[in-house]
Design a protein that fits this description.
Blueprint: H1 4-11, H2 27-53, H3 57-68, E1 73-75, H4 76-83, H5 87-99, E2 103-107, E3 115-119, H6 121-142, H7 149-163
Antiparallel strand pairs: 1-3, 2-3
Helix pairs in contact: 2-6, 3-5, 3-6, 4-5
Organism: Geodermatophilus sabuli
GO molecular function: DNA binding; DNA-binding transcription factor activity
Protein name: DNA-binding transcriptional regulator, MarR family
Length: 167
């Protein structure tokens, strides 16, 4: 006589684990959800920042990182790491911010090899004006996580740390 578990296994298609009690989503579904959430949140926040403050999400994030850095200055490498961009991507972003008068590039006397981005007064004002739009919209959208916010944040932090490229 077959065991009860064998009978259950015979009734389920082999590719449909979602019907098995306690089974989680397949990795492909989890990946899809992460990508969808990232894409949709990024697009929504980017659109709001463009519309209300004339700045992209990437530009805002660069300004914020510079504003939070000591003396409101950050190296291109620090920005690349903080923003998850390549050096070329950071160079392009900072170039746009320089053209808009929000950031200046400068070298320090201590190490002439390092190029820093420093906020201008206009950059400081722009990031201060755009922060409530960014933070308010992100907070509003993430309230949908409800009581799961801490669990999701912790889990994503672990995955992010494990996936970080070590140089």
């Amino acid at each position: 006589m077959p065991a009860p578990e064998d009978a259950l296994a015979q009734d389920l298609p082999t590719d449909d684990v979602s019907r098995v009690p306690g089974a989680g989503p397949l990795p492909a579904e989890t990946w899809l959800r992460i990508v969808q959430v990232h894409d949709r949140l990024t697009h929504r926040v980017d659109s709001a920042l463009h519309r209300e403050h004339g700045i992209s999400l990437t530009g805002f994030e660069a300004l914020r990182r510079i504003a939070e850095a000591p003396a409101e200055r950050a190296t291109m490498g620090e920005l690349a790491e903080a923003l998850g961009l390549s050096r070329a991507g950071v160079t392009s972003t900072v170039g746009r911010l320089v053209a808009e008068g929000l950031v200046i590039r400068e070298r320090t006397a201590g190490d002439r090899r390092l190029l820093h981005a420093r906020l201008t007064p206009e950059g400081r004002a722009r990031v201060a004006a755009a922060a409530p739009t960014h933070d308010g919209l992100v907070a509003h959208l993430l309230t949908l996580l409800g009581d799961d916010a801490a669990v999701v944040t912790d889990a994503l932090a672990r995955v992010s740390a494990a996936a970080r490229i070590r140089r």
